[in-house]
Amino acid sequence: MNRLPLACGIAALLACAQAGAANTPSMEELWQLVQKQQAEIEALKQQLQSTQQNVAKQEQQSQATEQKLVANEQLIAETDASVQEILDRPPSKSEWAENTQIGGYGELHYNGGDADQIDFHRFVLFFGHQFSDRVRLNTELELEHSLAGDGAPGEVELEQAYIEFDINSSLRTKAGLFLLPIGMLNEVHEPPTFYGVERNPIESRIIPTTWWEAGASLSGEFSPSLRWDAAVHSGLATSASSNYAVRNGRQKVAEALADDLAYTFRLRYLPIPGLQLAANYQRQEDITQSQDPLAGGADLWSAHAIWNVNGFGLKALWARWNLDGAGPRSLGADVQKGYFIEPSYQFNKHWGVFARYNEWDNRAGDRIDSEFQQTDVGVNFWPHPNVVLKADYQFQSLPNGGDGDDRINLGVGYQF
């Protein structure tokens, strides 16, 4: 017999007795009251049971969540170990090949006239390696004039070897041996990229292309159309024995004297497609590397413009050296300068013609009028964008008014 309903019934009878005999309920009413209370008690029991089941379910879910967390921590640890193993592992042959680039260029020249010779002027190989998205290596090895060694006319030269870092999307730096950011040809001089068999005399005698030094540089953008470069690097080492000629001062980073550093700055403006304007300044603390007390600092100023539109092209460049000291002044080498202007027209992707007027003065050691003039006219034929055949004729006038080195030039060049 369930004692709980009975106790409830007794409690109800006692309540009725206290209320007075006149209000005493019938047995049927008492029995209904007992059943109602019993139903309420059963509902409470079911609610309690449901609550207990929910608590047990939550405990199971909590345990499952904790197990998942432990499993995830183990997976993270295993992933970290795998990544570290990959980073520590030497690159495979396939990875090395994917991140390494090989290129180069070369040019064969025939010079008729006073020179009357044929020469494989340059054979260059480029090797680059991408260490990461932000760090890369660039190198360039050159053989000049086909044959190098004792008594041979050529040289083997390391023209570039530097590490470049991307600091962010608009700022990068490099350190090592690199081409200086000066003029039009010094950084970009592959044969298919310019007219004429020989490089223009201004960027050969005044800006001593190809010109590389060792140091560090920083390059960036004020805006997409305004770009800048700044570099600190080794410098030239001219001397009175070479009449302070700038080109003869290149040390090519071969046990180079480094008593006095040099600083180069460039600003480029690209306002519209096809148009580039640029200005350069370089300061040499002592252009003789403190070897000549009669000489001192030197400043190079240059500017150029490049304009290409609808096949028509126009290039112009001006450069000037100012050398300090009584030594350069006594030999007429304190100012070395020059300029050229070059119109061209490319009929289609295969054929183009040009003319170029050059004027320069670097005849160090000669205080009389020493300005050279040279006019070049010629044609380029590109059977492929990276292969070119060239022909031009140059007319040269000497400072004394006599005829200079008039000649025909033929050439073939390539890049890859």
From TrEMBL:
PROSITE patterns: PROKAR_LIPOPROTEIN (PS51257). One of its GO terms (molecular function) is porin activity. Pfam families: Porin_4. InterPro entries: Gram_neg_porin_domain (IPR033900), Porin_dom_sf (IPR023614). The keyword Transport does not apply. Residues 241-396 form the Porin domain. Residues 27-68 form a coiled coil. SUPFAM superfamilies: Porins. One of its GO terms (cellular component) is membrane. The keyword Signal applies. This is Porin. It comes from Pseudomarimonas arenosa.
